[in-house]
Amino acid sequence: MNPSHEPTALIIVDMQKGMVNDLPRNNPEAEAHIRQLLEHWRACARPIVHVRHLSRTPGSPFWPGQPGAEFQDPLAPGEHEHVVDKHVTDAFSQSGLERWLHQRGIRSLVFVGVSTNMSVEASVRSAACLGFDCMVVADACYTYDRPDIDGKLRGAEDIHSVALANMSGEYARVLPVAELLRNQ
User: Fold this and answer.
1) How many CB atoms are located within 10 Å of the residue 66 CB?
2) What are the phi and psi torsion angles at 178 (to 5°)?
3) Residue 22: CB partners within 8 Å, gap ≥ 6?
4) Please, which pLDDT band fits residue 5 given cuts at 50, 70 and 90?
5) Phi/psi of residue 62, each to 5°?
6) Cα–Cα nearest to 123, from 88, 173, 161
7) What is the CATH number of the domain that holds 162?
8) DSSP string over 32-45
9) pLDDT of 47-100, one tens digit each?
10) Taking the CA atoms of the chain, what radius of gyration do you get in angstroms?
11) pLDDT at 61
C-alpha cells in the first residue's frame, strides 16, 4: 500500500447521522466497508481522521447541536482519533487538517465516506494538490441521485463513477476495499 512505510491515515468523510436518509443512492455496502477499514486501522494503531460537516445555515440537519451533525454510532471516533470540523466541502479548507498531518509526518491518505462527488472529491483534489499521496476506496464511498445542470435526474451510480474517474490518476489511486486490505 505505502512502499515507503510512512504512516497512512484513514480519512473518513462526513459519516454523520444526517446522511442516513431515504434518498436514492448507490453502494449500500459502503458503511460496512468503512467499518471494516476503521476496525483494521484501529487494530494496526494507524492514524484515523473523522471529518464532520458543520453547516453555517440555520435549520440544516448539519447545524451544530442538531442530531444530524453527530457521527453515525458505528463509525463514531474513538478517544484518540482526530476530529476535523469543516464548513465547506473541502476538509482541508481552514480546518487545520494539513498542519495536523504534517506534524505527524503523514503523507499518505486513504479516503472513504460521502458524498463521492462532493466532499470526498473536493478533499482528495485538495490533498493531492498539497502533495499528499491519496487513495480512494471506491466501494467505501457513496453518493445520491442528483439532477444535472439541465435538470435531468442522474443516477447515483453514474455520478459516483464519474467522480471516481475525475479523481483517478492525477489526484488519487482508486481501488476497492479488498485490494487495499490485500496490499497491507
Assistant:
1) 17
2) -60, -40
3) none
4) low
5) -100, 15
6) 88
7) 3.40.50.850
8) HHHHHHHHHHHHTT
9) 999 999 999 999 899 999 999 999 999 999 999 999 999 999 999 999 999 999
10) 15
11) 92
Torsion sign (Cα): 57, 91, 32, 76: negative
Point out which residues pair with 84 in neighbouring strands.
51
Backbone angles phi, psi at 153, to 5 degrees: -70, 130
Rounded Cα–Cα distance for residues 142 and 131 (Å): 25
Query: What confidence score (pLDDT) does residue 6 get?
Result: 75
Which comes out higher in pLDDT, residue 105 or 3?
105
The Cα–Cα gap between 112 and 107 comes to 17
The answer to whether residue 1 scores a pLDDT higher than 70 is: no
Q: Is residue 184 part of a domain?
A: no
Any residues with CB less than 8 A from the CB of 123 and at least 6 apart, and which?
11, 13, 51, 89, 90, 91, 92, 111
Residue ranges making up the domain that contains 93 = 8-176
How big is the CA angle at 177 (ends 173 and 182), to the nearest 5 degrees? 90
Query: How many C-beta atoms lie closer than 10 Å to residue 57's C-beta?
Result: 9
Domains of the chain: total: 1
Look at residues 78, 75, 97 and name the one whose alpha carbon lies nearest to residue 86.
97
DSSP structure class, residue 13: E
Backbone angles phi, psi at 43, to 5 degrees: -60, -35
What is d(CA 180, CA 183) in angstroms, rounded to the nearest whole number? 5
Given a cut of 50, is residue 3 above it in pLDDT?
no
In a domain, 1, yes or no: no
